[in-house]
Each structure stands twice: as C-alpha cells, then as structure tokens.
Amino acid sequence: MQNYSSKAATCSLHVLMGKNKLQKFNDMAEFPHVFQYPFAVLQSEGGCPLKGRWNEKVFKNTHPLVLELGCGRGEYTVGLGKLFPGKNFIGIDIKGARMWAGAKESLESGMKNVAFLRTSIELIANFFAPGEIAEIWLTFPDPQMKKVNKRLTSTRFMRLYREILSGEGIIHLKTDSNFMYTYTSEMIKTNGYPIQICTDNLYRSGMADEILSIRTYYEQQWLDRGLNIKYIRFVCEPRDVLAEPDVEIEPDPYRSYNRSRRSNGE
Question: Is 246 a catalytic residue?
C-alpha cells in the first residue's frame, strides 16, 4: 500500500507540474513582450517581421540592443534592464517555461526596455539584422566539454555572433566552469580578440560592481557550493579566419546538478 501511495503521489506531482508548465505557456502566449515564431515563418520570403526593426517596432527608441543568450529565468535580462534604462534587452532561451519568471516580473514592473524571444540560439541570425546588436551576454552556459561546436564561445558561434553584432560588439561571459573559462580565454588569445576584463575569481577581484553582482538563482547555489565565478568581457571584432585553440584543458571535476535541472526545463 505504501508503494502504491508513493507512486500515486509522484504521479499527482507530475500532473501538477504539467499543469503549471501549461499555464506558463498560456501566459507567455499572452505577454505582449514575448515573441516566438514558427520555423515556417523564418523560412518564408518575409522572414521574421522584427528582423532589423526591434527598436522601431518593439522598444520605440534607438537605444543599443543587448542580448542574453540562454537567459534561463531571465534574472540577468531583467536586472540589466533595471540598471540601464538607456539600453534595450532581449532574453533568449528555447525553454519557455523557465523564462516565464523574468517575463512576468518585467511585465508587472512596467519595464519598457525588456523583451523575451523563445528560439534556439543557433537561429538568432534569422531574428536580427547585421550590426543590430551592441552586446551579448552569456550567463553560465553549459561548457559542453565533449562537443566543441556546441560551446557558446566556440569559433562556430563567434561567426554567428558576428553576423548580428556591430563593429565594436562586446561579448560578456560569466561562468562557474573552469573548463569554459579556460577554453574561452584560449579561443580569445588564438584569434587576437581585445580583452577588456578577465578574472577567474570575480567576487574577490574587486570588479564585482552593481552590474556583475546580479546573481541568478543557479549562480547563488554554485557560490554556496564554494565555486569561484569567472568573468570575461571582450570585443568580438570582425575576422576573416577563425581558429580553434590547440590546447588540452582539464575537465571540470564536477557536474552541476543545477545545470542538469536547467536542461530539463526547470
């Protein structure tokens, strides 16, 4: 009987979670600052109707446009939007249920410089015109230790970012992963990108200002586990040729349970 009760409770929990997720998707469909387009629209002759027109159609101004890729719950997108009313911010993630929190908070706060886009990062060139983006934030991406082409700071993604970045486009990386930090540092060095800030221990570097001290839900848990937070800011200048770094990097000695949870849409 106890085993049956346990299974019934688990089933009920899954049903509740499914209903909560469904409600979040319903909310997202109604939020005026959340955008998602079927792939067929992107492949059509007109493509995304906002491409090259985000400031005109969505934000109604000419402020610099900043993306957070893999925004999760949207804490950084919303936090940066509050700090910089003179910039426009778009949080991008494929998991709609988790970006719901940031979308809801920004809507209820009446923020006019924050929006969210549900799509795969690999498709961002379908949504933004060349030179339309001033900055890109990468906050705690999966280091993809076995798959170079899936790392969000690989040369594959640098080429993708260059399609939409302005000439002096800036990329920010904030990570708990020593592997990701080392790989990115070597990629930058190999391709001669100008580094503006680089630290392997942000909160003991004296650099953790109001901007960098925005802490996501997962970041705080990594800090509680004693992990150092790393940060790099560099200029993604145009390059005719890019090369992957020829270096062996020691894998991280842990697997972040929080990142695993994120990948499941929580």
Answer: no
